[in-house]
Amino acid sequence: MSFIATKTSKDIVREGSLDALKIGAGETYFGAFGIFLGGTPLQIGALATLPPLIGAMAQVFGMKLAEQVRSRRGAIVKCIRAQSLLCLLFGLVAFIFSSGWWALCALIGLVAVYHVTIGLIAPLWTSLVGDLVPPTARGEFFGYRNKWMSICTFVSVVVAGELIYALTKRGYEAWGYLIIFLVAALSRWASGHAFKLVPDPAIHIPDHSKFSFWQFISRAKQSNFVRFVLFVSSMNFATAIAGPYFAMYMLNDLKLSYREYMVVVSAMVLVQFAVMRSWGKLSDQFGNRRILGICGALLSVNPMLWLVSTNFCWIIFIQLYSGLFWAGFNLAAANFVFDAVTAPKRARCLAYQSIINGSLVFIGSAIGGYAANNLPSGLNASLALWVNESKFLALFVVSGLLRALIMLSLFPSFSEVRKVQKARGYQILVRVVSLRPLWGATFGLISDKRRNADGGSDAGMMG
Fold first, then answer.
1. Structural domains for the chain
2. pLDDT digits (tens, 9 = 90+) for 299-323
3. How far apart are CA 128 and CA 140, in angstroms?
4. Which of 227, 244, 293, 388 is the most exposed place for a label (fewest CB within 10 A)?
5. Pairwise CA distance, residues 275 & 126, whole Å
6. Is the pLDDT at 188 greater than 80, yes or no?
7. What sign has the CA pseudo-torsion 194, 199, 205, 211?
């Protein structure tokens, strides 16, 4: 029986799906909420990257919990419930502080504590679920789980966006945010209840599997995994130079309504639903490094597309393009950790990876926030050939160029860790961008029965 059909799999997927409702109704609108409270570009950048940095540091404590607690599941559920209560507090910021500097400080502080709970959960969750999911099913399972998470995120993004849009027209914008953060809180609480049903095997960490952060870093020349961490973290650094400011660019400079902003965000989520399981199967078949190479190269072009047009349909296309390849990149990066690191070292390596990644993302965002306010206006004007001038245009170019440079310099430094099949990049792309990922949801059972009846399997067929 496939692992996806087991009760354990269903419980993990149910927890992820309910968490995704929280992400769609809560985390997705952090930036928009900060803009509503009157945040400056530097404050919005801090909101997007300072809390994740603090959360990354908290993963050291999550790592120690994973290695010491009797019940990893019990510790995860407690952190989930704390996270749920924090979601409820977000919506109260606008009523307590109205708007301005203090409101942004309160929001950044609460989101920072929220990310501490994420930091505590991540090593525990990765350690526990990594023990439960068979190595041969990881790509398919996490692709399947992420597909359902994308569906739930899409639904909650749409509903939350429509609610805020409707209440904003009536002058109740703050109430709209309060309601969506309440929905996020309830969803996260329910996800904790679902996770209580997951098995909780004991774990033993031998002393030789414990090593310091500096020992981890010092092995950069010898360790394939450390070089992988530096590559992924550097790509996220380049992305963070522009990433936190796309919401501000769309809402302030392009003057998109909340409804239009919701459509733009949900377009990215929708395409991730369509392709996520396919990326998972392809990573099982051709290796996570191959997927990282294809997606990373194509994501280097992504920021440049914002300089082509401000037409709403073009913006939707950019989001579809972005969602398609970020889905593959993020899934392959997460699965590479499971392949490259043994179970006793998994929580510790994930924590150290998060510290490096969080630090570089914060630095990238700080550079972007500073540059947005200090670059010569003539530079942005020279880039505004087909779009209106904006202080963010140069950031988009710098982000894209840095991604391309990182792909050329750091991607060749690490290798695949398991035996996989060979395929050309365009062959993999054809499988993903064709309609086959969508067919699988409807005709998967029919095609499976036909292949079984024929007595063989088609390696190229996607479910």
1. 7-191+214-440 (1.20.1250.20)
2. 999 999 999 999 999 999 999 999 9
3. 18
4. 388
5. 23
6. yes
7. negative
